[in-house]
Design a protein that fits this description.
Nucleoside Triphosphate Pyrophosphohydrolase; two-stranded antiparallel ribbon; 9 strands; seven-stranded mixed sheet; alpha+beta
Length: about 160
């Protein structure tokens, strides 16, 4: 079973509540989709790596900046539709999306052509309020937003 770990960065919203930093998945499969095509910065890890260490590593790999050093609030895990189990932590911080330099991946494209192309792992990053994030995030990951919202009054900022 594949496992991924990630960090859900959050900050206070100007009008109250919180905003979260999500990325739109890059590559040709997601290019024309918006709803259900956003994710927290995350990535796969091997059984011998601690999930939280992987989450911090993947944050840096996917966004090109180190994660904040603040307290990490466990958000648990979910199983996505493809069977991958994702574990997440919420961390307070602020990040200018314009400073992000996302990692890339290479795949055969068009499929069956024998040619390869390189795509960004995340083709854009944005701060979103919880309602908008809930509309855009991969459906299985919505539970992380719900868990963050439940804990919002007690979260470190």
């Amino acid at each position: 079973m594949k496992r991924s770990a990630g960090l859900l960065l959050f900050r206070p919203a100007a009008e109250g509540g919180v905003e979260v930093l999500l990325g739109h998945m890059g590559g040709p499969f997601w290019a024309r989709r918006d709803a259900g095509a956003w994710t927290l910065p995350k990535g796969e890890y091997e059984p011998d790596e601690a999930a939280f260490d992987a989450a911090r590593r993947e944050f840096t790999e996917e966004l090109g900046v180190p994660p904040p050093q603040g307290a990490a609030v466990p958000l648990g895990e979910v199983r996505q539709s493809g069977g991958k189990v994702v574990t997440a932590w919420a961390v307070a911080g602020d990040l200018d999306p314009d400073t992000v330099v996302t990692g890339t991946f290479t795949m055969e494209w068009p499929r069956g052509s024998g040619r390869t192309a390189t795509f960004p792992e995340l083709d854009r990053v944005a701060w979103l309020d919880l309602d908008e994030a809930g509309r855009l995030i991969i459906p299985a990951q919505r539970v992380f937003l719900d868990r963050l919202a439940e804990r919002a009054p007690d979260l470190p900022t």
